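Is this the right way to post structure tokens for a design question? Let me know if I should format differently. Anyway, here goes:
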């Protein structure tokens, strides 16, 4: 069983047995047929992943990690907010006629800000500080720009990364305000684990710990039978992540720079409905 499996099992069991339902409250998300999408939730879950020990991917069901990496590069490298730059269709429901998801995610990372060293966007500022100011306690990004929230088609969920260098080790905290456990918990963990590996590699550091802080960790009503079946599957050991070590420029990583050796997730045929 991978460590990611263990944490996922623990989190879901905790939500299902001690969580709180929002059935009596008005909720925003809807199922495709227009029914309100209610959830059961736990507030304030913190999961810690040691990236040197193993790659934190679920084996209880396949995480479509190639699509997850594609979305990660869309946000952090292409800094795009247009679904035409994305290979999957996961954002289609939130895009307008031009393909834009509004001033969200990649858009926020592309905005340049003034610094004494010159104008830089949030990603380039992180790259600069990891190289020139590794002792800094100010190396962080935030997508939660209140000024632009009215122009975002969905408010950022995984909204902030805090990077911290200890010796030669790069640690990070991912702050997430809202987590759809079945659809995207491991999807987000895989993405941000790979992001820490990427920043570490191009900054001459080794990846350390990813701390995932989740405010509202929820399971949607229609996902419960699927999660219950998943919890009974036979897990497998974690695979090994292999990254093309010749890449030294953050913007030179491609989806083909990453490989997983020995990924043998449990068979999973169910289609997961997404609350919109
Ligand atoms: N309700 C909800 N949950 C989410 O996780 C979510 C949203 N909305 N809205 C914005 C993004 C879009 N995300 C998504 C949406 C769909 C999949 C999805 O369909 N995953 C499939 C496989 C996708 C593939 O084949 O590449 C899965 O089985 O995990 C994943 C992430 C995460 N986010
Ligand atoms: O990266 C992501 C993006 C979205 N989600 C989930 C979390 C919620 O279920 C919905 C967003 O709805 P809100 O009402 O805005 O919280 O999308 C995710 O888990 N990970």
């Amino acid at each position: 069983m991978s460590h990611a499996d263990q944490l996922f099992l623990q989190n879901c069991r905790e939500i299902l047995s001690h969580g709180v339902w929002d059935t009596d409250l008005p909720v925003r998300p809807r199922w495709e047929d227009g029914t309100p999408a209610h959830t059961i939730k736990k507030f304030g879950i913190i999961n810690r992943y040691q990236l040197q020990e193993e790659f934190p991917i679920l084996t209880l069901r396949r995480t479509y990690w190639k699509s997850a990496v594609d979305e990660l590069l869309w946000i952090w490298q292409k800094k795009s907010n247009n679904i035409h730059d994305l290979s999957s269709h996961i954002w289609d429901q939130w895009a307008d006629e031009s393909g834009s998801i509004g001033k969200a995610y990649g858009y926020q990372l592309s905005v340049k800000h003034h610094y004494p060293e010159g104008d830089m966007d949030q990603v380039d500022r992180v790259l600069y500080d990891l190289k020139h100011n590794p002792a800094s306690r100010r190396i962080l990004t935030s997508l939660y720009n209140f000024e632009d929230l009215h122009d975002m088609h969905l408010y950022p969920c995984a909204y902030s990364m805090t990077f911290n260098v200890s010796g030669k080790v790069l640690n990070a905290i991912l702050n997430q305000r809202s987590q759809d456990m079945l659809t995207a918990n491991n999807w987000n963990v895989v993405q941000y684990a790979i992001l820490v590996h990427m920043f570490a590699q191009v900054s001459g550091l080794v990846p350390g710990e990813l701390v995932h802080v989740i405010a509202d960790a929820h399971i949607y009503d229609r996902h419960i039978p699927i999660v219950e079946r998943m919890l009974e599957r036979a897990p497998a050991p974690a695979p090994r992540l292999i990254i093309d070590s010749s890449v030294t420029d953050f913007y030179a990583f491609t989806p083909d720079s990453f490989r997983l050796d020995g990924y043998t997730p449990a068979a999973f045929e169910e289609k997961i409905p997404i609350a919109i």
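Format looks fine. Someone answered above. Worth noting: The first strand starts at residue 20 and ends at 21. The chain is about 25% helix and 20% strand.
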